[in-house]
Amino acid sequence: MTKSKSSFPESTNPHQIKVSLRGKSILDNPRFNKGSAFTREERDHFGLRGRLPFAVDTLEEQVDRAYKQYQARETDILKNSFLASMKAQNWTLYYALLSSHLVEMFPIVYTPTEADAIADYSHLFRRSEGLFLSPPDIDKMEEDFLDACEGRNLDLIVVSDAEAILGIGDQGSGGIGISSAKAVIYTLAAGIDPARALAVTLDVGTNNEDLLNDPLYIGYKNKRLRGEKYDEFVDKFVGLVKKYQPKSLLHFEDFGVSNAQKLLARYRDQLSIFNDDIQGTGAVTLAALQAAIAVTKSKLSDQRTVIYGSGSAGLGIARQLRDATKLESDGKVDSKEAASKFWLMDKNGLIKNSLGKDKIRDEIEDEFIRQEDDWGKDENDLLEVIKKVKPAVLIGTSTHTGAFTEEVVKEMAKHVDRPIIFPLSNPTRKCEADPKDVNQWTDGKALMATGSPFPPVEIPGQEKKYVVAECNNALIYPGLGLGTILSRSKSMTDSMIVAGAKRLSELAPALKDPDESLLPEFGDAAQVNFEVALAVMAAAKDAGVAREEKMPDDEDERRDWAENKRWEANYAEYVYDKDGLK
Fold first, then answer.
1. 422 close to 395: Cβ distance less than 8 angstroms
2. Annotated domain spans of the chain
3. Looking at the annotation, which residues are catalytic?
4. pLDDT grade, residue 303 (50/70/90)?
5. What are the Malic enzyme N-terminal domain coordinates in residue numbering (predicted)?
6. What pLDDT, in 10s, does the model give residues 446-481?
């Protein structure tokens, strides 16, 4: 098979595009459809006069009309369905509407509402998008991949095997929903051209009995592929990305804990690979922690950290903080010494040598396993660990509701003036502690970040309130991706991720007022991620992995160059050309 050629060359006039589609074909193409915004001249040239109402709308008028239609939907799932339908009709209007109401609509197109849509995917299904790959067609995978990529040079490929979706677990073929949603956020928050992004689901079966017993389930109705056959399937897919789209970023999303780290370790040095559940969660937590320690005027290497919950998120956070500690020391601290500052806990209690190998998962590195001999059986309890470790930082990724009890929090506050407490589990009902309780138990001294949005909390004895940061991955992963894409990096290095996290922490409102948030507001996600991307580009150049020869060396020139590369939801002028874009 031959390599697919791009039909998306850089335009000399980005406001004018040559298009070969006419009539119904252009109206049915969401990339080029303008609906009522086609100009009189375009209606003449593209055979649209009788196909559209007479009036010509502006994009702003279309957004206003669409928002009123959106508001008329009574439930969140109906709003999600409305937006999905709009996306299938008109990309520009879809992204313009979302950009105009980002904070309001983000929970609708992503968590928590998208999780409901994914769980009911087979029942809501009307029109497919993206690429579905399943084991029975493994011999035809190359043909199917090339068909999806025909005429396209991709910047971004988001792939999921749907084993661990948004806190709702194994969702089989519904995983295309999370891949699509992540790609949408890349466009909204980083300006990735949606025409240069591809959502993929590796539909390798499901162990969800509800799906297997559902007569309407539209996925591969078999138990999940495991072992060598699973590895072979994923390896073939990654090989196709390397062969045909070698300059794209491959984003892994919501893979099960047993595969997530294994796949990241296997492929991250072969091409630009990113796992949001591991690296994105780790990076945004690192940024919040860096802001917190700036408030406490300490160093990362000074922190003693207990991580309660050691799945993909908890391990990803531990690894990210460990790697950042190493980089902060300029080689004075090795990986083992950096890891010694962490105490990890899971359902078996503290992860320590005396548990035995049968109770310690293979993906947990030896350096995170506590080797001390003086841990008793009673010290597997979180409170007992807090008493012994006396940590400055407590991070929750356990989904154990209320695990950070009053006794635990007060014990921690005995040993540190400003305890750093991050109950990160999603959704809200699974959070380890309510920030208002933590704030009360520490007399307003705790520095907090959560995985779900919480309102500001009262500070005892003061009129002002403490703003609780939301550790939302969308504040950083689009910027990490944009910086990697623009620099055409051959890999996403640890130094690039740490540089992005450092830049995000520098934008924290808490650096100006310690009662403000440890992270920027989500409404500023687009500008925040652009700043992250610039830091990532610089780090890629320093690491020697950047391949983009046109990327300027001068920082100001690089900023302007990068700004001009971002896709925006605006209508271009179309010129009919039979050899133009399709």
1. yes
2. 128-255
3. 110, 182
4. very high
5. 87-268
6. 999 999 889 999 887 788 899 999 999 999 999 999
